[in-house]
Sequence to fold (1502 residues):
Amino acid sequence: MRQAIPAGRTAAHAVPRAISDRTICGLFMAPALAILLLMVAYPFISLLYYSTLNFSILNPAKGSEFIGLQNYTRLLSRESVWERFVFTGQFVLATVVVQFCVGVAVAYAFQRNFKGRDLLFTIAMLPMMLCPIVVGFLWRYMFNSEWGVVNYLVTLLGFGKIDWLGVPGNALWAVVIADAWMWTPFVILLATAAFRGIPTDINEAAEIDGASPFFRFTRVTLPMSMPILLIAFLLRLIDAFKQSDLFFAMTGGGPGSDTETVAFRLGKIAFSHFYTGQASAFAVIMLVIIIGLSLIFVRLLTQQGRQD
Amino acid sequence: MARVALDHLSVRFGQVAAVDDISIAFEQGEFIVLLGPSGCGKTTTLRCIAGLEQPTSGKIFFDQDEVSHLPPRARQVAMVFQFVSLYPHLRVRDNIAFPLRARGEGRAEIERKIAWMSKIFDLGDILHRRPGTLPPGARQKAALARAVVREPRVLLLDEPLSAIDEQFREEMRWELRHLQKELGMTTVHVTHDQREAMSLADRVVLMRAGRIVQAGTPRELFDDPVDEFAAHFIGSPSVNLIDASFSEDGVALGEAGVPIRLPERHLEALRRSGLRRGRIGIRPHSLRPAGRDDHAAVPVERPIAYAVGRERFLDFELSGQTWRGVLPADAGDSLPERMQLDPARIFYFTPEGVRLPVA
Amino acid sequence: MTVLRLSGLSKSFGAKQALRQVDLSLEEGEVLALLGPTGAGKTTTLRCIAGLEKPDRGSVHLDNRDVTATSPRERDVAVVFEGFNLLPTLSVFDNIAFPLRSPVYRRPEDEVRREVVQAAATLRIGHLLDRRIEQLSGGEKQRVAIARALVRRPRVYLLDEPLSALDLKLRESLQGEIKAMYQATGATVIYASHDYPSAAAIATRMALIEGGRILQCATIGEIIADPRHASVGRLVGSPSMAQFPAQGTGQGVEIDGLPMRLPGPGEAGGRLLVGIWPEDIELTTRPTDGYAEGRVWATDFRGRDKAIEVRVGSQRFRKVVELDLQAQQGDPIWFRLPPGRVFHFDAATGERIDHGPTRRAA
Amino acid sequence: MTKTTRTTWLGSAAVALAMAGLGGPAGAAETLTFIWHAGTCADAVVNIAKDYPDKNVSIVPALVPYGPEWHNKIASEFAIKGDGFDFAMWDSQSTAEFAGGGHAYSINKVFEESEYLKPELFDPASLARYGEYPDGSGQYWGLPINQDAYGFMWRKDLFEDPEEQAAFKEKYGKDLKVPQTYQDAKEIAEFFTRPEEGLFGWGQMGGREYDFATTASNSFMWSFGGELYNPETFEAKGYLNSPASVDGVQFYVDMFEYGPQGSQNWGWDEVNAAFQQGKLAMAMQWYYFNGSNSDPKVNKFAETTGFGNLPGAIGRDGKFRRQYSVGGQGMGINTYSKKIPQLVKFMEWYFQPEQQKRYAAVCQTGLKSVLDDPEWQGLNSYNKHFAKALEYTNDYWHLPEYNVLLDILQEEVSNAISGKKTVQEALDDAAERHEEVFEDAGYEIVRSDETPEVPDTVIAPVGTDQVVELSTD
Fold:
């Protein structure tokens, strides 16, 4: 905002003094603010409003009853809902860790110059471009325990066939693999950008300083790409938290509801059961969690900035 | 500290020879400056010494040890880079400790060496700060400390001052000069700034197109350049240059053919060379108001006099070109009609730019 | 005739006081250098003159007209910033012609062409007129920026460190061109810089600014003969003034850590700075009576001569010496401050505490 | 812009405007959009509609994958009262939800307004199943367009192999023939389960998605005399978890032993794939897929695949029942559509026997005259069985809340399949949760003093004392 004021002042010299700079500033910003309000605030406020109603948008004739925080208390008192959060947490943790380990390693490997690197890089980016539902069905067939390619490989290695999607623990990992397959490219992309942003000088300096490649990676490359990696981590975290397509396609949330993520559950409540009020409350809870996560990362980022 | 020798060193990138068969030795403790315009091969030479670039042919010795193909880690060199000389995410003390930790030195030893560096470089105030919060001068000082701390065999400096404001650069030059002598380290410094080269070097190696044009003390390069390129590249304000035609009768300058009387021994030398045309150069400080003796004097047209500090310069036209000379501090407001070239300091060049020995 | 007058100009940005009571006036055809370190208030002064910044207090008069409240386009000034602020999409010609085509200064197109060509010739960029800005080198861009300011023939040119981004050789040649330009056109110029040599090369008068305050405004000769403030000494000269912390004894001045007693104005126990232009310091390489012993801390070869830094304890100074002086780093050296050549400054405020010029004038 | 071009431009704009004004509805092409899941039947509708005589009307499909997305797409449009589609084929059980919300256009009105479209064209059972809400009210909201039922298929080459027959007789002391009861089916399934040969006895769906597990387990549950709830009293406890219901679901869960590992989460696609690869001796599958499963290009065992009706079961009351899930979709009309008259015209054409015969060649028509037509019945090996199958179909809740109920039952049956809960626990929990849904929705639950062991005797056909054999030719 400080930047904007001198500019406003300059413009103000030419016009009569009747309108203050601040007013002009306000006038210029008004349309943008209005749009922002309309696009963000309105849906959010109506979400909050709906979350206090017993209401189904599919059956408006039945009317809507104001029930205060009952939607929230009902959701949060249900053990099954907490179980969904725990499962989602496990999934998020697993997939994001896998994505970062693999993604950062691959991105690091891509730092070297080798023949066909650009082509390989492009190919590596492809999974990200696919539609999640398609990816889900693709992996569902690959994980088919009877004729899927994954079990084929497993048996080639001399192990017994694994029921990937029918056992909750396995299904978690199956979806983690699919999710990581799809989204590791995103981490590769950002990590590559982060690595390329590190001046060559720095790496050469470290090399001359006598640092081994591992020492260089852990002491120079990684810390210096941390701001971008943190942002990538946050994006992946939020995205993984919202994952439902892959579970929908691969396990349908089963067996039982063991592989339902919160987003999956929310989708069901909102668009299958059409419990609009309850779904709104659920969405608000998710939003609060996501905002909380974001705040943690924003704090981390600004802390990093402050240290510099 | 080591003596560094380059033996027929060449680096080719495809068809281009970045470094073209260089042989030279840098003595132990010597401050060497590789000077030249961009693309002259100075940086490539430095990177070869560091091990960041592999020579296409030729050898590099540190004392008796051939290091031509050793990786940078194994060479025990230190280098300070142009822009990013410190790890931005580490505090100054951790920056200095970095090369020691990279080599797995003990904690106590590291502490001892940080304290040592802090004393030499006067880093007390900034040890716990991050590079981003430091003024550029302090940053480069810390970078030097990081380079020096592990007592390298050679210290390599890749334009370490060029990213710094002019204000700080001058200060850093003084610091660098003092410290290098104090530590007695063999130092190879790369720059395109002749002022910096003159200021710092024990010996300047002037390069062009991958080859060494001239290597010598700053004073040798200033007073006795081997060719027109060297004469022009070194010195500020720049050397005055003009085309000249040589004949039996004498010498005439520029297109206008302004005649100039030169010492007989110079004319004799010119005659011996058999040249008809060439170029004449004189540094501004060797061009002063002519006294009664009109020897080696040129007429002053359209003079503009101005002072820089206590020094007064005189710009004037000579056959359509601007020449610059100096006026004595005690001269009044009246401007001289003729300026005189100090005969001992006139440079004669062939049309190809090679300096003719005259004296 | 006074073209520009600043009276009591003050400006703050939040808690930072950028300008404090700045008074300056500029005569027609004068080139004034505004010399000061980074952050001294040079740019803010120029922005106030241009109308890009409104002072909190004080006034700006152009040709005796109060323009303090008018907009930049109502003031007949041109600004060349440190950056190039050229329009990258336009050719060199169109960039230079830009102000002449703007509504305020609109001229017929043939006149525009004439003016542009002439300005380009002055700055030796006639051959570049058809190029695009992005094809130019830094020095060429700077010349285009200056030509763009030149072409409009404003009452005042404001040049804000126009050369500091360039390397030494280019800077020297552009200094000459800027000089030639104002001598040819009789323009009135303020040239803001932190670099003493380039300011000295261009300006007829210098205003020294630090911490938003004008310390002194005078010709170079006047400044050297009569520096009003310790900071003036530090800003002027190459090397700049040597300054030694010292203590008054009532009868004279004792320089800290040196066996040197000088006549001076200090009260007993008063802290002060003894300043002297390096040219006035006398050196010898042999122990000599009345000389203090120091050590050469570092040397700096400068082509036709060399500079040395001498240190004794915490005292230090730099001085240009003859090339032939035998003084290598670490060598002992003896020096003396001739009493008539020193200036005395209050150690706390930096103000001069003796009065009037020294005997010697530049 | 020069003057001439401007004139020209204005001129053509005027012409365009005039054309638009004059042309009106007659000139503009009319599109009728429908939502369905992608597959042979939707393709058939589109193909047949190409020959619709009124060339100004074109039928545009908006297809989605089979599963919840399909329901959700229709529901979402209804939720915003949009006219993004004009008609849709929705699952039989959705009628209550969409009609209850007031989003479906009354088919009774269509019957009144149309000269041709009358209830008599359809089998009353079909009409009720795919369009009636509330049950027995005579209010219709959809026309049977794609009738479907759970069916049965088996490998004739295995069943007719003399060696297999001898071995079976040896082991079980009876003849190997196509089973009429699940009890028989279990023995045969066990007999053919030979993992080392890659052959398994029984294939069925158990997936958590949509209704995969429920429609399959319901077929067992009903055949064993179980019930989902009592539609009179809205009791689920005592019905859904009645001993007979538990018998049926337990039998269903046990049958996974004779399927490949991982078949617990199969959907129809996996059942088809496994059968087509010859991994299954028997499988329960929707009639809908018989078209492709009898196609030699798709199924290499097509020539030797038998198609017929699912077995029944002898329940704990000693009665034989044969009941299985109804499938298929009714065709409903979006009440927010602005093109209902044009749509009704199209329907009048489309439900002509001529068009329906073409349709019935690949899909299951609802038009009585075609179903009864011997020519159609003889068209392939399964049409005649399908005509019979309709008598044995049953459907779950015709309530607007069915989607929530279904999701709960899916979850609990899935829990039972995966072994996370016993069948009893799963059904107890399901019954409990279903009653919560009923209460939330405002239904009054009238609690009976006593609940039946075999609920089917109370609210539906009692069953027969003898096994009623159906043809397996």
In short: Confidence is low (pLDDT under 50) at residues 1-28 of chain D. Residues 150-325+400-459 of chain D form a domain with the D-Maltodextrin-Binding Protein; domain 2 fold (CATH 3.40.190.10). Chain D is about 45% helix and 15% strand.
